[in-house]
Amino acid sequence: MSTSGLQLETNLPQDQPHRDDSGPSTPSRVPVNFFDPVGVGELRRTMTSRSIADPASPKQTDARSSSSSASDQAGADDSFDFEQTLKNLVRRRGEHSIKSRELGVMFNDLRVVGVGARASLQPTIGSLFNPAAILRNISAMRNPPIRDILSGFEGVVMPGEMLLVLGRPGSGCSTFLKTITNQRSEYHAVEGEVCYDSFTPEDITRQYRGDVIYCPEDDIHFPTLTVEQTLSFAIKMRTPHVRFADQSREQFNHEVVDILVRIFGLRHARNTVVGDAAIRGVSGGEKKRVSIAEALSCRALISAWDNSTRGLDASTALEFVQALRIGTDIARVTTIVSIYQAGEQLYNLFDKVCVITEGKMAYFGPAKRARQYFIDMGYEPQDRQTTADFLVAVTNPSGRKIRDGFEGKIPGTSEEMAAAFLTSPLGQVNRDAVENYRSQYVGKPERVDAYKQSAGMEHAKTAPKRHSYTISIPMQIRAVMVRRVQIIKGDLGAVVVNLVVQIFQAIIMGTVFLKLPDATSGYFSRGGVLFFAIFFGAIASMAEIPALFAQRPIVLRHHKAAMYYPFIESLAHTVVDIPITFAVQAVFAIILYFLVGLQRTASQFFIFFLFIFSITITMKAFFRMVSACFKAESGATSIAGVVVVVVSLFTGYTIPKPDIPGALRWIMYINPMRYGFEALLMNEFHTLNGTCSTLIPSGPLYQNVSLANQVCSTVGAQPGQDYVDGNLFANLSYDYYYSNLWKDFGIVCVFLVGFLVILFIATEFNTASAFDTAVTLFKQGTRAAKAVDEPNDEEKGAHPEPAGPVSTDASPADLEKPSAMDIFTWRHLEYTVPISGGEHRRLLDDVSGYVAPGKLTALMGESGAGKTTLLNVLAQRVDVGVVTGDRLVSGQPLPADFQAQTGYCQQMDTHLPESTVREALLFSAHLRQPANVPTAELEAYVDKCLAMCGLEDYADAVVGSLGVEHRKRTTIGVELAAKPKLLLFLDEPTSGLDSQSAWAIMKFLRDLANNGQAILCTIHQPSAELFQVFDRLLLLKKGGQTVYFGNIGEGSSTMLEYFQRNGAPRCESDANPAEYMLDVIGAGATASSTVDWHTIWKNSSEAATLQEDIENIHNESRSRPVIQAQRPTEFATSWGHQVLALTQRNFQAYWRNPTYLMAKFGLCIAGGLLIGFTFFKTSDSLQGTQNKLFAIFLASVLCVPLAQQIQTMYISIRTIYEIRERPSRMYSWTALIVSQILVELPWSIMCSSLFFFCWYWTVGFASDRAGYTYLMYCVVFPLYYTTIAQAVASMAPNAVIASLLFSALFSFVLIFNGVLQPYRALNWWRWMYRVSPFTYFIEGMLGQAIGGANINCDQYEFVPVIPPSGSTCGQYMKPFISYAGGYLADDNATSTCLFCPYRTTDEFMLFRIQHLVLSPLARCRHYARRHCFQRLCDFYVHVHLPHPQGQPPSWFAAASLLVFGSNS
């Protein structure tokens, strides 16, 4: 077994860097078997047995790691010492002259400069066109404002040391971590000296990037990979070339994975997917340990962890840092961690601490001496305040406490604090450490050579020695390909959906063009089906764009960790996708080819499939290339939408090559689909000699006419022939030739290679992704932005504080006092949910309790104990599973509007991003307070809530730009604005906040409780000081079992007495009771307890007293009147009031989202100009008439990308409704639907109007017919595609599925309008022609635009007919023309009659596509028939169909929509 992936070392190797021994800074140590004693015990026994069995010396050994294939110690299992074994392994490395390496970091006079202001104005669609705003933006682009984020930092972090970075949000912690780990791309400049031993930051970036990594706050992994697959991949990419004898890479990988999952307690989860927000996987604490194990398996020497304990309970957070301590001690790495709320046990694990205040370094030195340093300076910690909280508090003017006699003497500003530290003895010690490090390790060529030699031993023989990557490119390709296969296996649903959609399209298209005849009547249809065959596969490739942007942060992180070249991911993705695409397209091709009845020879079928497959692969490469070239998804999607229009226009089907304007013809030559379409068309028509379906002339009077005097009406017909050569038809119609077939294939391959090359280059060098800088945005017209625009941090989660402390006379007493009579109780509550395999899992087990007015009750427990589940069950916010037990208000059943009488602050602060804070509170007040409350009173109450929440300075700030603390305050304010009468639920209101912000939130909740509000609150990582704010505690253990419910007591005495009385050890006076009780019950992801505290609770007197208290509450309440619902209906306000409020809010959201609106307008303008100039000034010839038909047809196709934009916006707003606003009973589902239609429709009409003005006259339509066309395209058509897009989105769980569904349904209704396949050829699908809304749209548009006009054939469009000898053309053709239509170029000609098949556009529409010219009355009839029915069906889908608990339409609604909504 090998442990090289862990760098398992416990003694200091040669050339150990100097440690700062200036104080008692030795941190707490963690035993290696902390997480999994059993697993590590097995590991010890395994290593012992291998040590005895294989004493041979190693052939090759990892430069920084050890092997477990041998050990100098043998003995019984019980006497095996893991640490001693590791020391022996290190010693043996030295015996075999194997060099080790370590890396520390030194920084001196470090300064980080950022770009941009801290606060700005929210851009709107109006501000984009405001001349003053335009000038300001130009000035800012030319001279961007810069500001110091960090300045004056100096210090050293040695290998084996852990540094804790403390500071308030926005102080610069994340920036410091990123800078130290060489992540500099986000910043304008990084100045000063940063040395990694004798290496510069440039050296690290170029050659040793994998040795220095930054781990962001969020755990980013591929969600469908298992824990073992995630770790195995990381180990595989960093496996050293040198290993012990007879140890393959696979053995090395397996053994290191085994060590990692044992040490970090992940054995039970090794085959569980990691998961994400949408895919259920391992728990939060386990995911943190996966990130640690992955970082260790990458064998990084310096690692920084940014606020990684966010969202973890105290026990799991402590386990996380203990795991880091184990990794740091074993691997001898340098670890830097920033944490916002650090308990005392957690703090004691660190060697050093860095305190940051407003970008200045207030302290850097031993962690054990920091507390006394600030006490000596004149600050005093609060009672039972942890050291970490105290260090953060001294940086906050409103949170610090000054010792008596030091008033006016202490440093007040961040500059003064930084200067005080520099002049202090500890500051001098820190500078001495920097100089000592510089003298010993900086500029030492021998250290550089030794480091390079050690690193070089790890590189594979074929790996580039001057790069950071450990394994060779072929090895990287193979490993990433294996991972891609694993990702696909974990998400087979996406492949199945793609396959089903392809089969659906093939069946629909195949049955529409079922068994096409070989006659000339099928020529046009064959071209349509061949165009569709390549077009659908191309546009389906667009669906990959969101997934590619979703994985980019993972690829970027792996790139920074030097696992693989970024282009390897694109290459592996392409290669693995080839067989999948091959299989899917094979199914599609077989179904379509044989249903249609194309030429049945083996060569022609395989050529057809070859081009279908190659074009699909090529277009996938193209869309991936587009994604790789953009930093944001919105830009890539916009370009992809325009490209779809371009490829559909310039393939040669909608407008043949000879008819394309010369200025645009070059586009055909850069369109790969054009070459694919030419090849498919010539492959089909090359062997086709179609029997003439219509001879000219023909009929009863021409039965005895010789074939020499008749001709086929199809292009390419020759006099005297009753068939048409397919080659000639294609040559004349499309300017395509069979001789180009294999040349076309070569060109498609060239395009594929070109796209792939650009894709690989863009992926490799465009590794950065768009990141949001912390700029608080204020509503246009406000001056608050200037008030808070002061220098600060430019990092995630960093947002400005108000210019000064919030001063207000408002208090909870100003708010309406809740009822002090109603007590919410629950008794014997159980909650069971179904899981896979038909089994059930109990999440809550016999939970009882109550929440009284005026009391603040804490709901606590370890991760996975069921805290949030209990909160959701109590608040009636679960819609799956079975809930049993009693939930009562004052002993009576819950009123019908219980949810409306309670407030629920969720852990995730879900708000409409474009609303301001004041608007969010006003919206809640308007819809959740009774409708008879005057507006002035509502606004005054909202102002009180703003003052209470400390949000007065941020009242006009846009919610989406706020920091964590102010978003949390906004969430609480939104619930307070509703005046919850019964109860206020809060789920982890302090998660992600620093200790001072957490204290401010809890102090606010305490004041609310003192005012009579009943509050039930879950909380993570509370300090002892914060824990004392609560009155009562409900403590749960895993399985949702009660461990304790009752008063906390003064100094937690009541709670502590209960645990100590039942066998728990005594709680030390300086310990945190919140952490103590979790330790006692065995809380934590890996901890356990030998005592069954749930059983103890059930048998305790406290549990019996609880049941008595609940019964007494019920008995007392029965004497009072029955609790009545406050509202006669489910909602507080009328339906009309809801629609009005929602419409106003959504209009504001759209106005403040210029990105969405400009993308919509840009698409319409670009599409209008593109289609307009492609069909520029179309003539009145036969081809010109068909071009006008396709100009209208393509104008309708533009609704596909527009609908996808609408669906994305719609689903984002619907998500807010489903998560927060529906459970709060704010408004009805129908009100949301109607408001969305009312808001979206004007913008869609404006967008279509822009398209119309760019398109109508450019094509050459008559001006006197523009009015009706404008009505149809710019008013009626937007009403259709807006509502149908929202109807499809209503039944889709996310935007990706909505896009696939809309594309499938749209193509389903688009096929049957008579354009792609004439009505007479639709066979049994003719009923769809009548119910497809596009039939009436095309009919109305085409009939109005070109109806009643003459057709004048071009010279090549005339059909030459030889009349019988002695007859003129007029005499010979007159009977035929009288019933068939058409005209002759010269009635008096006698040698050759030039016949045009159509005289008027009416004839063309009637015989070609079965459309009729519409009279004004008929237009009104079709308008009413199509659109009134459509509105009724959409309303039916949205409203009438039963929605379980107000949810959007189900899949039954989807079927109804397919029959009614889409095909009205």
Biggest sheet architecture: 6 strands, mixed
Rg value: 37 Å
Amount of helix? 40-55%
Treating each run of at least 4 consecutive H or I residues as one helix, how many helices? 50
Sheet-strand content, in percent, reads 5-15%
Q: Which structural class do you get from the secondary structure elements?
A: alpha/beta
What does this entry look like structurally?
This protein has 1464 residues and is of the alpha/beta class. Helix content is 49%, strand content 10%. The strands form eight sheets. The chain has a six-stranded mixed β-sheet with strand order 6-7-8-4-9-10, sandwiched between helices. It has a six-stranded mixed β-sheet with strand order 21-22-23-18-24-25, with helices on both faces. Strand 19 and strand 20 (892-893) form a beta hairpin. Helix 17 (492-512) packs antiparallel against helix 18. The protein is globular, with a radius of gyration of 37 Å. The relative contact order is 0.08. The model is unreliable at 1-25, 51-86, 789-809 and 1411-1464 (pLDDT under 50).
Provide a concise account of the structure shown.
By secondary structure, this protein is an alpha/beta fold. The protein is 49% helix and 10% strand.
Keywords for this entry:
1464 residues; disordered N terminus; 28 strands; alpha/beta; globular; 49% helix; six-stranded mixed beta sheet; single chain; 10% strand; 50 helices
